[in-house]
C-alpha cells in the first residue's frame, strides 16, 4: 500500500461525494446486481474442479479484490 496514493484516493472520494447531490439511484438494485455477479464468479471457481484449497481461496480473494470489496486481508504463507 502506498500511503500517498491512499490519501489521494480518499481526497478524490471526498470531493466526489461532496459534489453529488440528489440523484435517482436504487442502491438495493446496484448492491443486488453486484452481489449476484460476485457470487456467480465464486460459484464458477468452486465448480472448476480445482482440488487445491489454497488456490481456490486465492482465486476467491482475487474476485473480492477485482470488485473492490473488503475481505479483511489475508495472510501470506
Question: In a nutshell, what does this entry contain?
Answer:
By secondary structure, the chain is an all-alpha fold. It has 3 helices and no strands.
The residue fraction in helices comes out at 55-70%
Count of alpha and pi helical runs: 3
Provide the gyration radius in Å: 17 Å
Could you give a short account of the major beta sheet? none
The share of residues in extended strands comes to under 5%
End-to-end CA span: 19 Å
Overall outline: flat
Number of strands: 0
Features:
single chain; 77 residues; mainly alpha; 68% helix
Structure description:
The protein is mainly α and 77 residues long. It has helices at residues 3-19, 27-47, 53-66.
Write the layout of secondary structure elements.
Blueprint lengths: L2 H17 L7 H21 L5 H14 L11
Amino acid at each position: 500500500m502506498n500511503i500517498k496514493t491512499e490519501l489521494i484516493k480518499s481526497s478524490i472520494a471526498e470531493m466526489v461525494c461532496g459534489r453529488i447531490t440528489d440523484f435517482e439511484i436504487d442502491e438495493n438494485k446496484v448492491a443486488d446486481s453486484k452481489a449476484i455477479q460476485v457470487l456467480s464468479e465464486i460459484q464458477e471457481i468452486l465448480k472448476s474442479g480445482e482440488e487445491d484449497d489454497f488456490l481456490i481461496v486465492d482465486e476467491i480473494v482475487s474476485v473480492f479484490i477485482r470488485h473492490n470489496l473488503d475481505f479483511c486481508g489475508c495472510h501470506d504463507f
